[in-house]
Amino acid sequence: MRTSTLATLALSAATASASLTAVTVKGNAFFAGSNRFYIRGVDYQPGGSSDVADPIADEAGCTRDIAEFKKLGINTVRVYTVDNTANHDACMNALADAGIYLVLDVNTPKYSLNRADPNPSYNAVYLQSLFATVDSFANYTNTLAFFSGNEVINDPASSAAAPYVKAVTRDLRQYIRTRGYRTIPVGYSAADVSENRLEMAEYMNCGTSDERSDFFAFNDYSWCDPSSFTQSGWDQKVKNFTGYGIPLFLSEYGCNTNTRTFEEVKSLYSTDMTGVYSGGLVYEYSQEDSNYGLVEINGNSVTELADFTALQSQFSGTANPTGDGNYNSTGGASGCPAYSSPNWLVMNDSLPAIPDGATKYMSSGAGTGPGLTGDGSQNAGGASTGTASAGSGSATATSSGGSSTSTHKSAAMAMTAPEWSFAPMICGAVVIMSTFFGATLL
Q: Which pLDDT tens digit goes with each residue over 38-51?
């Protein structure tokens, strides 16, 4: 293992991240400058969900693991939980020095939507935490994207919570633009629910430009070795998403039902798929209870498992397509899916208005976040009380400074006063039923 320390890397912190070109969206693809960018990465949360910790604030852990990332040949890591009060300079600059980007989930176990009853959990305290996380990571050029949620919709019944997922996505995009940050893509990581997979993708890409996601991703474990492009059904997913107007990628993949040889890598980065998909993230880096790990971590030592070697071999033997990979350069919005019980329970195209107490953050900034030890937000009060007019999430000002302390015109001035609507209450009543279908708190 390479033993260079983050203290040494931090000496060049002022220039390390600046040397890594920020990723942007063009049509249905990501680009780093003029070059098509394919996500080749792993999901990275040592300790798993049972040990809520911030790996990007762990300098020793970053030093240990970045050496392994480089051996794998990856360019992206996904992190599910961070502490928005911690300093992340050393690790983020070390990742940039290694050519590695970050895709970040902005929710934490205490600050997240409740799929069973989303309206109370969509409140100003919740959004303040999310916005503070954006502030913590927006100025690193290797922050590739933010996830507004992960698997909030995990069955047909919970689809009624989709307007709240989309509202959070809208709010994050507005916050980024109004605070004058560069345009950092915001999207959603969906569960691979066959009954409403396509509807969820269409929904996150329909409506006015302020309401639409910058990308869509889903967790896909349908390719279980030995398999193939057609046997796994990936050919049908490519067919169904052909013409989709924003980038699409796999936020988790790597079925472990059988021995993993990662044959799907060859398909994912071939022209069979690159006209529609922009790569993906293998689940997961460290060995946890679910037995998906590529490595076993024991203190400062790392043991590479058989899955590590198999994935390393597939990555090294699979080049990206030459040229632009046949991407859809024009992009475009999808049509909003119609209500269809029992699989798609979104009544109409209206979204909840941003809670009144959260509009101030657009102009003043989020301030200090609650970190991982805050009181939580799900029952904090101050929830949305109506629906928003289309276009109300547009940014009111931009600047080139990108500082969370910049002063901007109040976003509240651009927010249309919400007309009273029973839609959020109806939605909440419907999704309460999801508790009987095994819904859990996210």
A: 999 999 999 987 77
Q: Is 263 a catalytic residue?
A: no
Q: How far apart are alpha carbons 146 and 49 in whole angstroms?
A: 19
Contact indicator for 96, 142 with CB cutoff of 8 Å = yes
Residue 397 has pLDDT above 50, yes or no: no
3-state secondary structure labels for all residues of the chain: CCCCCHHHHHCCHHHHHHHCCCEEEECCEEEECCEEECEEEEECCCCCCCCCCCHHHCHHHHHHHHHHHHHHCCCEEEECCCCCCCCCHHHHHHHHHCCCEEEEECCECCECCCCCCHHHHCEHHHHHHHHHHHHHHCCCCCEEEEEEEECCCCCCHHHHHHHHHHHHHHHHHHHHHHCCCCCCCEEEEEECCCCCHHHHHHHHCECCCCCCCCEEEEEECCCCCCCCCCCCCHHHHHHHHCCCCCCEEEEEECCCCCCCCCCHHHHHCCCCCCCCEEEEEECCCECCCCCCCCEEEECCEEEECHHHHHHHHHHHCCCCCCCCCCCCCCCCCECCCCCECCCECCCCCCEECCCHHHCHHHHHCCCCCCCCCCCCCCCCCCECCCEECCCCCCCCCCCCCCCCCCCCCCHHHCCCCCECCCHHHHHHHHHHHHHHHCCCCC
Burial class (CB in 10 A: 0-12, 13-18, 19+), 218: buried
The catalytic position among 68, 199, 252, 284 is 252
435 is written with which tokens?
């508790």
pLDDT score at 396:
58
Tell me the C-alpha distance between 209 and 170, whole Å.
Answer: 9
Q: Is 411 exposed, middle or buried (0-12, 13-18, 19+ CB in 10 A)?
A: buried
- Does 422 score more than 70 pLDDT? no
The share of the chain scoring above pLDDT 70, in percent, equals: 85
pTM: 0.86
State the catalytic residue, choosing from 68, 151, 202, 211: 151
Among 165, 50, 164, CA closest to 105: 165
Rounded Cα distance, 114 and 422, in Å: 19
Radius of gyration from C-alpha coordinates of the chain: 21
Q: Tens digit of pLDDT for each residue in 194-226? A: 999 999 999 999 999 999 999 999 999 999 999
Q: Which fold has domain 6-316?
A: TIM Barrel (3.20.20)
